[in-house]
Amino acid sequence: xxxxxxxxxxxxxxxxxxxxxxxxxxxxxxxxxxxxxxxxxxxxxxxxxxxxxxxxxxxxxxxxxxxxxxxxxxxxxxxxxxxxxxxxxxxxxxxxxxxxxxxxxxxxxxxxxxxxxxxxxxxxxxxxxxxxxxxxxxxxxxxxxxxxxxxxxxxxxxxxxxxxxxxxxxxxxxxxxxxxxxxxxxxxxxxxxxxxxxxxxxxxxxxxxxxxxxxxxxxxxxxxxxxxxxxxxxxxxxxxxxxxxxxxxxxxxxxxxxxxxxxxxxxxxxxxxxxxxxxxxxxxxxxxxxxxxxxxxxxxxxxxxxxxxxxxxxxxxxxxxxxxxxxxxxxxxxxxxxxxxxxxxxxxxxxxxxxxxxxxxxxxxxxxxxxxxxxxxxxxxxxxxxxxxxxxxxxxxxxxxxxxxxxxxxxxxxxxxxxxxxxxxxxxxx
Length: 430
Hints:
By secondary structure, this protein is α+β, with helices and mostly antiparallel strands. It folds into three domains: about 1-5 and about 15-60; about 105-185 and about 195-290, no CATH class; about 305-415, Glucose Permease (Domain IIA), CATH 2.70.70.10. Helix content is about 45%, strand content about 20%. The strands form three sheets. Strands 4, 7, 8, 9, 10, 11, 12, 13, 14 and 15 form a ten-stranded antiparallel β-sheet that branches. Strands 1-2-3 form a three-stranded antiparallel β-sheet. Strand 14 and strand 15 (about 410-415) form a beta hairpin.
């Protein structure tokens, strides 16, 4: 390559531009470089160089900018990840809460249905006992609207309203609420109550539990009352008979035990109360049966007494004489009734008694029905209380139609009026 710089500047002559000649083999090229072009290229190269140096220096001395940018990006990424984790946790909590609410609802519904079923079973057990109590006490089972109404019990089906002293059992929909704890309330107006759905459900469950508990308490109270009444009635009957000098088999020393009832800690209170009521009814039934076996009824109900037991003026000879019975004024043909159950030991003519029937009632007690016009029983026949044994007449040593009635204890005549008065006192209890 050959370069010629042109002629030397001489005053008064024009300076020639630089010419660059390039020779390559047989080929020769040349071009001319203008001064302004050289200046421009030099300025551009210098500017680029200075810019590069400045940028390099800035990056070298401010390398923390890159770290800050990276850190900021990392923080943003962590914030997004934390937000996503929080949302996932919230979804999990909501799902878990719904599952817990559903399980709690199912448990509560199951408990309510079990308690309702238990109350229904209790009612089934109480019905025959209450019917028995009504029969023993001699009262109609529907005196108060039916035996079943005396002890409240919820309906056997949860979708029926069981009326028991104002209690209703609205368990319809609870089973579906167990499957979806809030679907049961979807039809309710949320503006009616400021409580949440779960709080309203809990409140309703509490109210139903209180109602069921109230029914249980009423059942126990009714059972206790019936047992106390049975014991009290049995005591009244026994005391009335004891005041008249009569004793029952239940007064023997073999049954001399007692005391207030307290259910054992390991036993069911309801079962224990039912057993106590059953025992009280057994005792009352036995006392009543034994009392009815005593000749305390009236052999001629509604008829007046014409002569009492004891010494009197004999109506035939006019002299003082012992009257071993009592006379009831009655027309001929009026029925003479057995004053207690027993067995006929005599049925026929018996001297001054005329036509007479004698009945053995056991425990040394017997009764006689004399001056009959007709006898309707035979010896050895079993007689029930109130059964007709004959008809009033005036047979034997008699001045007119009447019924001569005697009560004998161990073969000795006693005042029958005392027994009739006892029967009158015990009429409402037996």
